[in-house]
Design a protein that fits this description.
This protein has 1136 residues and is α+β, with helices and mostly antiparallel strands. The strands form eight sheets. Strands 1, 2, 3, 4, 18, 19, 20, 21 and 22 form a nine-stranded mixed sheet that branches. It has a five-stranded mixed sheet with strand order 12-24-23-13-14, with helices on one face. A four-stranded antiparallel sheet has the order 25-26-17-27, with helices on both faces. It starts with 13 loop residues before the first helix and ends in a 14-residue tail after the last helix. Residues 1-8, 186-222, 232-247, 266-280, 345-349, 352-362, 398-447 and 765-777 have low confidence and may be disordered. It is an enzyme of class 2 (transferase). Residues 606-943 form the Reverse transcriptase domain. Its EC number is 2.7.7.49. It is found in: Nucleus; Chromosome, Telomere.
């Protein structure tokens, strides 16, 4: 099969292609397109210039990598009204800075060119701006020498230039031309989606529906009039003797006349409906004009189910419609209009059976509906839901010694009662009453009634919901027993959904039939206005509207009022349901522990002092994530807050810290030594490890003996000394002023290339004198996308930034439940600057204590030989590699003692060593597989204890069911959705550090690819199991698997090339496309072979395709090593 051609260097960004069309090119192609044809005799006298040499003159041997990066990846779009380019090459007489500045000042004087970005954000005092600094670098000066000053001025005036942000190939900054955000791109140049719809979606209200119906009828009538006029013209022309026309039928066919008569009657009825406000009709007509057609893809909103701690004594919240309405005729009719809609112009007052005897009223649809919905309101308000809750949702409880007790039997829970007071929970099991104290003030008592394992199962939650529905919903609206089974099955599908999965109306209606519901099937008997298929359509509309309301406004509030729905840390996206009293008991114990450790309550006077006029942000909110035996607090700093006591609104904490965040990111990039050994991603790990291995091997093939120490900081965020941190940050922010610009990040939507704008901030470096730094750096809050300046830059003083940081650290107010608390120790997790603050804090610790200690160790253990060592820290995870055992032992002893000055100590359960030593109370965390090769886990990687080869750590999946890690999207194209999911599964496993042959051997490179496909195959099986009836055919599944293999190979190639471009490291990939395909097919075959009953046909196809490669795969040692089961023994402990 032919390989797919890789895009050329500097291929045009899709957004720029959408905005500018074919005028968008990279900078090199734009310059070459402006050149005239080569002359026969050039003025350069054969010395070589741009006109006669072209591309060879732009890029010469020996040019810097930054210049090549600029020429190849910078984007440029020539203006549509640009004049002809200069035809004469001129030797530059001025510097690049002077040309840019003079061009900008000239355009500022010309008002017609004042919209150019080069004129924006210009600072008159130092006569500079961001665009001037970016266009005045050494690379642009070299480009000026190559193209001349006339062509450079032409580019600045008439081109929109987008320069790469640093070494990134996905982030661009617009520096010249009309701002991209001001272009009209509402109609993109090309689409990837379906053609537009012919009709707009129906809006709420019956008048819109009727007006649409009238418009459609009017269109038909107008078309008939046009045809009648056309017939008259044809008749006039045919009456002339000189023209012979064939005979045409002047009268419509019978089926056309019947259709026209039907449309005229509907138009007449519709006009009477709109104009005649005093007309009377039956209740069925009222319902037909009121009900809206619910699309099948209407989303059932599940977000109201999660993280809701509020509980009520009644079944529904106080503001719910079933709690507010009264069980009388008026309340029932209001509920009918709420559910099925209301025809505003339809004057339905009462039924014609109001004066008749009771038998005729009982058969009337209007009176029977009133009776049913009055019963619904009355039973919803009187429902004894707590008794049903305790009957159907039994839990695990803890004995007084803290051990998990047996499950409470369902039969004994018939007498289960629970009362949550301030200090205790009472319930009775059988004939014995047991009381558990929930107050944690008494330290001698270890009694805990419930734990994070005391959740209700999905089947129990469904049983409670359906039992409640049977109590409150009348039988004609709930259907017969067949519809009960189907409805309960659909409710179970809704309850067992994972966190980010979606549920649509078509999923609610699956299997439900109108004939199984007495209320909707009686429409045909009760009304004679609509006959034939219209009654069936109306009944189906009513059923879909009723089921949609049942799920949205009954089932969802029942769950949110009685259960606390959340995920668990060890189960990823799987949802767990806790009864509200039990969850309150578990959370209360966690809050008491937090009070004793790092939080204290805040009184009203202290609250007024903290929330003064100068404070710009409010408080954060805590929610708790269940773990195996405790709760993990998570802070939400992204929501604005309102303080009722002060009656004042505050913006979110993270919104106030955005400017400080980008300034700290700029300091991080400019002064990496302030961070010590910090690495922020696997690319940073790759750069440091690549350099260390090159030094240690020193041109040889074998790796000398190395000694590794892995350690983890205990409670890194919660143990930070606040005063120490503020003192450190005051020394880090050295400039008196910082410039912050407001940018817009232009993104592209899926399917349609249409920009969407998100606010983004950029920070620009300054000298202490107030001028721009020589190497101008712009650091954005996002790393990729197109950034366009929006307004003049703002200056932020160091004093204001430090005051904001002090308020955030020392006066961090957290709302837990209904109370506000002040954080005394540590910093807030979840803040946009928390990871940077922790990195600066630990970096200062390394600089003052750890690095001097390691320097002394190197002097005492050197013995005249050069010792190589490497220290890396991924946030709070240390790894130290040295060729000296004494140095590794000294590092271990220093970490054991901890750092009292910084309140920093190591977790004794998370040490890892590749050599033997007496550990004492400390544990050695080392993984050894069935092949006997030892590894040390560190930050999601497995480090080989002997060769320093890197593999991905899959041991963290041992306690997790793979089903809880996936999200299934049910759509119209299941094959495409499955393929996109498989692509996303391969993204995290394609880092350069796993496939570079300078770090890993060829066998390990293939093993890493094989293990990535093993995990992908497990997720593939779980995804197929959740697709039910919409599973693609085996042939289509095989094509998807092969596409995933090719995508993996192309992705690895792309990332290796990006590593060479961005880091200057020549990465080696000794892996072929056919090897990747064979490894992928073999991995899928090994995983799916364990589930033969489901994938029988697909396994046959996989076996046939694997046999095609067996001729050379059997003789390849590296491939046989990769597929050896002993090297991937960790996977057979994963549940899927």
């Amino acid at each position: 099969m032919a390989r797919r051609k890789r895009p050329n260097k500097g291929s045009v960004h899709p957004i720029l292609r959408s905005a500018y069309g074919n005028r968008a090119r990279n900078l090199k192609d734009t310059i070459l397109s402006l050149l005239p044809p080569p002359p026969h005799s050039c003025r350069c006298d054969s010395t070589g210039c741009l006109c006669c040499r072209g591309a060879d003159h732009l890029l010469c041997q020996g040019d810097s990598t930054t210049y090549r990066h600029l020429i190849s990846y910078a984007q440029c779009a020539l203006s549509s009204d640009a004049p002809a380019p200069p035809a004469v090459y001129s030797v530059p007489q001025r510097s690049q800075r002077q040309i840019v500045r003079n061009t900008m000042e000239l355009m500022r004087r010309n008002r017609s060119s004042n919209s150019n970005l080069l004129c924006k954000s210009y600072d008159m005092d130092p006569r500079t701006s961001l665009s001037i600094e970016l266009l005045s670098s050494s690379d642009w000066s070299l480009l000026l020498d190559r193209i001349g000053d006339l062509l450079m001025e032409y580019l600045l005036k008439h081109c929109s230039i987008f320069v790469p942000n640093g070494r990134s190939i996905t982030g661009f900054i617009q520096v010249t031309g009309t701002p991209l955000t001001s272009l009209n791109m509402s109609k993109p140049s090309y689409h990837l989606s379906a053609p537009p719809r012919l009709f707009t979606p129906p809006q709420s209200g019956c008048t819109q529906i009727l007006s649409q119906k009238c418009r459609r009828i009017g269109q038909v009538i107008s078309e008939a009039k046009l045809k009648r006029k056309r017939d008259e013209v044809t008749k006039d022309v045919s009456s002339q003797p000189s023209v012979c026309q064939p005979h045409e039928r002047k009268r419509l066919h019978s089926w056309q006349r019947r259709k026209q008569h039907k449309l005229n009657n509907q138009n007449k009825a519709c006009s009477q409906y709109v104009k005649g406000k005093d007309c009377r009709a039956c209740f069925c007509c009222f319902m037909s004009h009121s009900v809206q057609n619910q699309p099948a893809d209407v989303l059932i909103k599940r977000e109201y189910v999660f993280y809701n701690r509020w509980s009520s004594l009644s079944l529904f919240p106080k503001k719910h419609m079933l709690s507010l309405l009264k069980p009388n005729d008026s309340g029932a009719f209001s509920l009918i209009k709420k559910i099925f809609g209301n025809a505003k112009d339809y004057n339905f007052v009462q039924c014609t059976h109001c004066g008749h005897y009771a038998q005729s009223r009982s058969k009337c649809l209007y009176h029977s509906s009133l009776a049913l919905f009055k019963s619904l309101i009355r039973d919803a308000q009187r429902c004894r839901h707590r008794m049903l809750l305790h009957k159907h949702c039994y839990v695990n409880f803890l004995s007084k010694d803290g051990q998990l007790g047996p499950k409470v039997a369902k039969r004994s829970l018939s007498t289960f009662r629970m009362h949550q007071n301030k200090n205790e929970i009472k319930f009775c099991i059988g004939n014995k009453d047991q009381t558990f104290k929930t107050s944690f003030e008494n330290s001698k008592s270890n009694a805990r009634p419930f734990s994070p394992q005391s959740f209700s199962k999905h089947q129990q939650v469904v049983s409670f919901i359906f039992a409640t529905l049977r109590r409150i919903v009348p039988l004609p609206l709930l259907g017969n027993k067949k519809s009960w089974r189907v409805l309960r099955k659909n409710i179970y599908k809704f309850v067992q959904l994972r966190r980010h999965e979606k549920f649509y109306l078509k999923d609610c209606l699956e299997g439900l039939e109108v004939s199984n519901f007495e209320f909707f099937s009686n429409l045909e008997k009760s009304c004679s206005c609509y006959g034939g298929g219209k009654q069936i359509v109306l009944a189906q509309k009513l059923l879909s509207t009723w089921v949609h309301w049942l799920f949205m406004h009954v089932i969802v509030p029942i769950i949110s009022s009685n259960f606390y729905a959340t995920e668990k840390e060890s189960k990823r996206y799987e949802v767990f349901y806790y009864m509200k009293p039990i969850w309150g008991s578990v959370v209360k114990g966690c809050i008491e522990k937090m009070k004793m450790q790092s939080f204290c309550p805040v009184d009203s006077d202290s609250l007024r002092n903290i929330f003064n006029d100068s404070r710009s942000f409010g408080f954060s909110r805590f929610r708790f994530l269940p773990k195996e035996d405790c709760l993990r607090p998570l802070a939400n700093l992204n929501k604005p807050s309102i303080l009722p006591s002060l009656n004042k609104w505050y913006q979110s904490v993270n919104a106030s810290l955005n400017e400080l965040h980008v300034i700290l990111k700029t300091i991080k990039v400019q002064n990496p030594n302030l961070l010590g050994s910090t690495v922020f991603d696997y690319n940073d790990v790759y750069q440091k490890l690549h350099g260390f291995i090159s030094k240690v091997k020193d041109g040889t093939v074998s790796m000398p003996e190395v000694f590794i120490v892995v350690a983890d900081v205990s409670k890194a965020f919660d143990s930070i000394d606040q005063d120490k941190l503020l003192k450190i940050m005051e020394g880090i922010m050295q400039n008196d002023e910082y410039i912050v610009g407001n940018y817009r990040q232009v993104l592209s939507r899926k399917k349609i290339i249409c920009p969407a704008y998100n606010a983004s901030l950029g920070s620009i470096s300054l000298h202490n004198e107030g001028s721009y730094a020589s190497n101008t750096l712009v650091q954005f809050s996002s790393s990729s996308g197109l950034f366009v300046a929006q307004a003049a830059h703002k200056k932020r003083k160091k004093y204001d930034l430090h005051r904001l940081l002090t308020e955030h650290v020392k006066q961090n107010i957290v709302k837990i439940g209904h109370d506000l608390y002040l954080q005394k120790v540590g910093i807030a997790q979840g803040s946009v600057i928390s990871s940077l603050l922790c990195s600066f804090y630990l970096g200062h610790l390394e600089e003052t204590l750890l690095q001097p200690y390691l320097g002394k160790l190197e002097e005492t253990t050197g013995n005249g030989q050069a010792q190589q060592s490497l220290l890396m820290r991924y946030l709070d995870d240390f790894i130290f590699v040295s060729t000296s055992k004494q140095q590794a032992l000294g590092f271990l002893e220093r970490l054991r003692r901890g750092f009292r000055e910084y309140n920093c100590y190591m977790n004794c359960k998370k040490f890892g060593l590749n050599f033997e030593v007496e550990m004492g109370n400390f544990t050695n965390k080392r993984y050894v597989g069935e092949d006997g090769i030892p590894f040390l886990p560190w930050s999601g990687l497995l480090v080989n204890c002997v060769t320093l080869e890197i593999q991905a750590d899959y041991t963290r999946y041992w306690d997790i069911d793979i089903r809880s890690t996936i999200t299934v999207h049910r759509g119209n194209k299941p094959g495409g959705l499955l393929q996109s999911k498989l692509f996303s599964y391969m993204l995290p496993k394609s880092y350069v550090i796993l496939y570079d042959s300078t770090i890993n051997s060829p066998a390990t490179v293939r093993l890493n690819a094989y293990q990535a496909f093993l995990l992908c195959a497990m997720k593939f099986h779980c995804y197929i199991c959740e697709m039910h009836l919409s599973v693609p055919s085996p042939d289509q599944l095989l094509k998807i698997i092969k596409k995933t293999c090719r995508y993996m190979y192309n992705l690895i190639l792309k990332r290796l090339r990006d590593a060479e471009t961005c880091f200057g490291i020549c990465a080696l990939l000794r892996l072929k496309m056919k090897e990747i395909i064979w490894l992928g097919l073999f991995a899928f075959y090994c995983i799916l072979k364990r589930k033969q009953s489901r994938h029988k046909n697909l396994l046959l196809l996989l076996r046939e395709n694997i046999d095609k490669y067996n001729i050379w795969s059997r003789t390849s040692y590296h491939l046989q090593y990769a597929v050896d089961a002993s090297h991937s023994s960790m996977f057979w402990k994963i549940k899927y």
